[in-house]
Amino acid sequence: MTRWTQQAAEDYAAVGQQTHVQIFGSRLTQMMGDLHGAKALDFGCGPGRLSMAMLQLGAAHVTGIDQSRVMIDTARHEAEQAGVSNRLTLAVGDETSLPASEPVDAVLCSLALMMCETEQRLRQSIQGIMQSLRPGGCAAITLTHPCFRREPYPMFCYEMPTDYNYFEGGTPYRVHIQSADVDREAIIVDHHWPLSMYMQALIDAGGRITNVMELAAAYDDGDQPIGPPAYLAISASRES
Is the pTM above the cut of 0.85? Predict the structure, then answer.
């Protein structure tokens, strides 16, 4: 996976999750089912805000893994502040840390797979996610929508190469993320993969796709989407 620079990790921890944490956090039950009493894994947990959202929804324990020590240190600090350190285990790791040593009931992987710069790493990550589940367990994977890379969105935009081709996987691009609350910008490098690549990798890893949601970057007061889809959420169960 793409390695975080110190500056990028600090900037992203400050501004990068404010929008999507609200959007995904309110839909975790729809994406993952009832989490009461569940043991869960948050792969690519970042500052741990969705890990803590799973705890708030009743998960008994969450293990958060992220390749950035800055992210893990931030998550550890926030968990201590929230008083949930005894239910949240945090560790530095990447796709080579999977599968989990003990099967879990649910796995969340939020906005992490776009950092895979090769198909091998993408497939290894997805296979590790599915193999971390107990039979019948559920994985929820969220992505920036691969079909809408040219669109400007509230709080973030893409800097795509001039020769960008949707069907060519692994193309690097920059994401500029801003916040209305914090006067700074986070710039990260992601990699484009066509939608079919994600779906096929899930199927090849033994996943049964159970739910797909397209989500906007902003919603009006009636919870109606504003603008084109910014995110894609895919849920899959492990059959055996």
Answer: yes
Among residues 138, 125, 141, 110, the alpha carbon closest in space to that of 40 is found at 138
Structure tokens at 200: 């096929």
Q: What is the number of other CB atoms lying within 10 angstroms of the CB of residue 182?
A: 13
Distance CA 235, CA 1 (A): 22
- Answer whether the bond into residue 152 is a cis peptide, omega within 30°: no
Domains of the chain (ranges, CATH numbers): 6-238 (3.40.50.150)
Tokens at 232, concatenated: 């894609």
pLDDT tens digits, one per residue of 117-139 = 999 999 999 999 999 999 999 99
Q: Are 160 and 189 in contact, with CB atoms under 8 Å apart? A: no
Q: Is the CB of residue 156 less than 8 Å from the CB of residue 178?
A: yes
153 secondary structure, DSSP code: B
